[in-house]
Here is the input.
Amino acid sequence: MQTTQFIWFDGKIIPWDQAQVHVLTHALHYGSAVFEGIRAYACVDGSSAVFRLEDHCRRMLNSAKVMRMEIPYDVDALVAACIETLKVNNLGAGYVRPLSFVGYGEMGVYPGDNPVQTIIAVWPWGAYLGAEALEKGIRVKTSSFARMHVNTLMSKTKSAGNYVNSILAKIEAKEDGYDEALMLDVNGYVSEATGENVFIVRDGIIKTTPWTSILGGITRDSVMTLARDLGYTVEEQQFTRDEFYIADEAFFTGTAAEITPIRELDHRQIGAGHAGSVTKHLQREFFKAVQGDNPKYAGWLHHYTVRQ
Ligand code: PPE
Here is the structure.
């Protein structure tokens, strides 16, 4: 990975290599951590902007609330810390990863009085599913692993433990020669991918899975807003894998994946087998919004500047 110089650790800026924890850190054993994934973009006016930073920080505090973890910072403090970390690393575009975890103290599942620690790291991160993916689309396989039941793990939290399910599905998909896994919920309906939400387009109507067994993606929300503003009908509705097979277009959304077209699911070509016109339209508008090239969405951007 591409590293940077400094990491924010419980309020202090320390060298990247010194951001370490004890091997008996609770989160390492039991997955007791919540995190965010946020992108900063270089803007058309020469500044930089973090996309929906406040919304990400709010989601992180909500994740902590559900997980019964007490993060000693409010949204404003987390926002300021993310910006500080970007600036101290002089990073004008890249990925921001805040993480709060149950630290070292007592062993055993019960987190008790173990400290909750917070770090923020930033680094340059290109196209998540490969440089060609955003253009040509990716090949996807329905996973043999179901997404968690809504009472198994809390899918609306972005907590570390949830990603064990994602790791299982991702390894399977990669080893079988695919770019990403499509995960179904325990009732057999399409849920989400290992790190992305999912959309299909059929007869001009855009459909995404309802906010049940999925993470409430901030990219998902942004794409729904953009699409509705552009006059498309957007439905949040359950759908099945065979409805996916006969879709005209399909794409994944996520901070890392942005808007990634899907060209194949389970050996069925989706639509024309490359990014469809609605997908391309949304991609164009999304990149304009994140780069500060559409004043309508200026409220989504938290601007900052780095040294040239
Ligand atoms: N579902 C899951 C399970 C998920 O992890 C993500 C983000 C999303 C949906 C989309 O959410 P949003 O980023 O708010 O639009 N996955 C993050 C982690 C990727 C990783 O490999 O790490 C991300 O995209 O940053």
Remarks:
- Residues 57 and 119 are 13 Å apart (CA to CA).
- Residues 37, 166, 192, 195-197, 215, 217-220, 253-257 surround PPE (CB under 6 Å).
- The longest strand covers residues 94-102.
